[in-house]
């Protein structure tokens, strides 16, 4: 019995594996054409000042509206793009689009773009970013680049040069998903991060409590000493907003404020806020 069961299980496993692989291959092939076919678009999620409730920045998040598969989430296709190398072309397109959109916003609003490690290590990466800024007419100081700790697993000169070169031009760097990876304070010590984004697992879910609160407080304390902004990710309720604000986070992002929205809605959020002087959501 055990043998038969084992075999059946193996076969079942193989079928799922194959289906997974087929889907990945499909995604890989189609991703190459998706840009030309106009299936990709950039959405923007507000990052809000927890003191005033006003929008300080938007994070650019890529969306793929596939003609047959429907809306694909970046968690599904970004890893495929990374493995196949398409991420370099895709990433350049995302940065260019985000910079063009941000150039239309008021001057004190910045845009944050996520970068994959592979994109950063590609030859001419820094130049590509600077070109996108120049073409869009967006000052370097209005661009933030979000990187995760996975970037530093491989210790590369290319990474250090990229960060140094762009920082010197005024581009700011944010450490994304802080607390989920290696969370080495060494990265914060070695690189000029202006912002730390505390992962949403510290804000909601099974691991939230006295301990997570103490950790956020400690990170916020460090942030204020080192003049770094601390962003709390994944804020869905007013209670969570108040908790991270009390803990010392200066900025917040999450469904409580808004989901990621198309560019015209981002512009609308900004103009409404500026015309009325009233933020769309309360922070206290
Ligand atoms: P991330 O950079 O940490 O982005 C935040 C993710 O959390 C986004 O998911 C956002 O929609 C989601 N989120 C925001 N607020 C809330 C909330 O209140 N509750 C919950 N449950 N989720 C919230 P999204 O857009 O699906 O992106 C997932 C990840 O894919 C991103 O995580 C980022 O690592 C990657 N990604 C997205 N766009 C890009 C891109 O243009 N380039 C690269 N390289 N990676 C990207
Ligand atoms: Mg991010
Ligand atoms: Mg994040
Ligand atoms: Mg993430």
TrEMBL record:
Residue span(s) of domain EAL: 24-274
Entry superkingdom: Bacteria
Identification of the protein by name: EAL domain-containing protein
Organism: Altererythrobacter arenosus
Full-sequence range covered: 371 to 654 of 654
